[in-house]
Amino acid sequence: MVYRFKLVSDEATNFAREIEIDSDSTFLHLRNAILDSVDYSKDELDSFFLCDEDWQRQEEITLEDMGSSSDRDIWLMEDTPVGELVEDEGQKLVFVFDYLTERSFFMELKEIIPGRSLADPVCTLKKGKAPVQKVDMDEFDAQIDAVAMKQAADVLDEDFYSGGYNPEDLDGLYDDSNLN
């Protein structure tokens, strides 16, 4: 049976990829097909996450066992067939390709094609340019700071202090009877 996954990115609006893979192939095969389709290096750590319908991450499928002391099952890409964890059309996944910045592709199983098999995964649709694999951390921090400053400016606009200060608003907030 063949699975057809669609990938999109929240960074590149015109970006999409479709990957077809045999359900018996491993998540490592899927990972490599994705990385090949976007011309990314394969020397970075990355993970898949199974998600619920609201994109909330649930199970993680990792490239390497990081020695987690969790009670949860550890799913390794190399050992886990895609069809073992993904069974239904519409299943959502996230592929985190940049751990430092949590950048990822959003994936959905668009179609299950019974009666077909594939020896190797294939990219059947390439649309748009993928976001860069690694971002400059100074640039990333500057973007985060700019967003934070804008949010602070929106909250602390000139009307913020216009109500004045009333000392009676603080009555009862501090009780000095508990000092000794």
Architecture overview:
There is one protein chain. The chain has helices at 27-37, 82-85, 137-155, and strands at residues 2-8, 16-22, 47-51, 57-62, 75-76, 92-98, 103-113, 122-127. The protein has a single domain, classed as MM3350-like (Structural Genomics Hypothetical 15.5 Kd Protein In mrcA-pckA Intergenic Region, Chain A, Roll), CATH 3.10.290.30. It is globular, with a radius of gyration of 23 Å. It has 180 residues and is α+β, with helices and mostly antiparallel strands. The protein is built from three helices and eight strands, in the order ββαβββαβββα. It has an eight-stranded mixed sheet. A hairpin with a 7-residue loop joins strand 1 and strand 2.
Notable traits:
180 residues; alpha+beta; Structural Genomics Hypothetical 15.5 Kd Protein In mrcA-pckA Intergenic Region, Chain A; eight-stranded mixed beta sheet; 8 strands; globular
Indicate the topology:
Elements: E1 2-8, E2 16-22, H1 27-37, E3 47-51, E4 57-62, E5 75-76, H2 82-85, E6 92-98, E7 103-113, E8 122-127, H3 137-155
Parallel strand pairs: 4-5
Antiparallel strand pairs: 1-2, 1-7, 2-8, 3-4, 3-6, 6-7
- Overall residue-averaged pLDDT value: 85
Which consecutive residue ranges, at least 5 long each, have pLDDT under 50? none
Number of domains: 1
- What is the CATH architecture descriptor? Roll
Q: Which percent range fits the helix content?
A: 10-25%
* Main sheet: strands, sense, barrel: 8 strands, mixed
